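Re-running the complex after MR caught last week's input typo. The corrected sequence lines follow. Everything else is unchanged.
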Amino acid sequence: MTTHRTASRMLAIAAVLTLAAAGCSSEGGKQEEEKSDSGNTGVADTPRYTIAMITHEVPGDTFWDLVRKGAEAAAKKDNIELRYSNNADGPEQANLIQTAIDSKVNGIAVTLAKPDALQGAVQKAVAAGIPVVALNAGLEQWKAMGVTEFFGQDESIAGEAAGQRLAQDGAKKVLCVIHEQGHVALEARCAGVKKGFGGAGVVENLNVNSKDMPSVKSTITAKLQQDKSVDRVITLGAPIAITAVESAKEAGSAAKIVTFDTNKELVGSIRSGDVQWAIDQQPYLQGYLAVDSLWLYLTNGNVIGGGQTVLTGPSFIDQKNIESVAQYAEKGTR
Amino acid sequence: MTHRLLARPELGSVVGVIAIFVFFFAIADPFRQATSMGTVLYVSSTIGIMAVPVALLMIGGEFDLSAGVNVTASALTASMLSYQLSLNVWVGVFVSLLFALGVGFFNGFLVTTTRIPSFLVTLGTFLMLQGANIAVTKQVSGQVATDNISDMDGFGAAKAIFASSFDIGSVTIRITVLWWLLFVAVGTWILLRTRAGNWIFAVGGNEDSARAVGVPVRQTKIALFMGVGLCAWFMGMHRLFAFSTVQSGEGVGNEFIYIIAAVIGGCLLTGGYGSAIGAAFGALIFGMTNQGIVYAGWDADWFKFFLGVMLLFATVLNMWVRRLAVRR
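Corrected-run output:
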């Protein structure tokens, strides 16, 4: 086995050297990325616990990378084995919670995007004596389910803040792009935008399919071509915002793009003014606190927030404060 | 005809079930506990109940791509009707049964009348239902999920039938597992012991010669599509009463899982061959893999990849066993 491994390592090194000689890019690429040193912290000497994190992630959304990175950083520090699983379908997510109960994990962190579907499974976990914390979604319902802590933002409040800001910016017609049909939190955001925007103008919803970016682009383009009066597009995720910028260019529309949530690519777009601003709910912090809070609970009985919601957002990121966020975003943790 | 039935289409899938079970039993610690088996059986039953009519339909030579969203559509129909009109939930349950059977009839009627391949007809129905699910739900309840109906008249009784569970020792068995066994038994009985069963094999094997010998081809196919509708309604009711609300976007993509389960169980994509028991084993393979990967603690990013590998493995094993059996 070991000889096999060294052989394959030698092969890999040889391959890399050949490739490097063949053509180096003088700028950009992995080499320019700063190595994050968050992994070099000490490790807690508490017993090794297993924690399951179960989310409603649709695979391939950058938002969840940040949540997972935060969770992994906390797990590493706290000597915890983190088991991550996800399913966007409510009943399937409930099955995953049941799976965690079967596996006798020490703690469960769960997103309650579809609270009614998860209620039974969460209560079972609590009855089995497994501490459960919630993150990201389920602000209204977490207390009633016997969950001990919640880390996230109130989607309606975040939406209202966005709507008020749009009204301040002088927008008249806003397009709110929902990228996952039937997602309660996304619908709440657009409803919040409408409420915050109030009498300043009209907010119209547009459904796109985030699993298929070309169709997202063409749908937004078509809408902007069809309705020239749209002057702001608000997207509910960073990847969609970057696509919407392309759409606006393609449609020859003067509409400006704003968005919920950030990622690495979005920093450049905010710097260049392609995207006006983003509402940040600090996904890294949500993942980190969910795991860290369970560790505190398991090792010392602490409850962060004292039974109240712990808010991680909303805050605005725009050209004024982008530099303070940029360095972390480059490392992929904001 | 009888000789072909003796070749046992499900033989290969039995070996697949054993192989996958042994594999996960060896590598995943939680998989060895009886309590976990309750979860595995439940997950398998939610696929298996649909895999039975889908297998029968495939033996009859047709596909139904609208099966997955039809489950959600029936649940939405029952839930919204009861809630909006403040009726006893049983009214919603029966109206949604008519609705689901209607979708099946519509599919069967179009396929047999127009002679357009069922793949295309049901793709159309699938898209129509997917759109209607979200549009109607939003129009009626103003949001993308239905309102919670758990405090309405008749909910308790309906939950007992469609979504209750009982304990045997430390193992929780969901009622869907029992229903699944019943559906498999009924499907097998129809296929092997009734005249309708012979008709199903005949229309899937060779439609024209079936017609020539007096098999009611049209009625048989429409009935098969309606059978899928019936089970879709049943699963819809399970989802509704197990979770009290329904998300309008769910069910998309499940139609392929039902088809995969039927194929692993020995159904041919070309029709005329297969079994209901095989479809049950196919669903069990899918359920075990689905849960086993999570019990084993493998990286979630790779989940779908492993699922694909396992399914290919099961299917190849299946083919190989069947060849051995036929050669003897």
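None of the earlier attempt is carried over here. Residues 155-280 of chain A form a domain with the Rossmann fold fold (CATH 3.40.50.2300). Chain A is about 45% helix and 20% strand.
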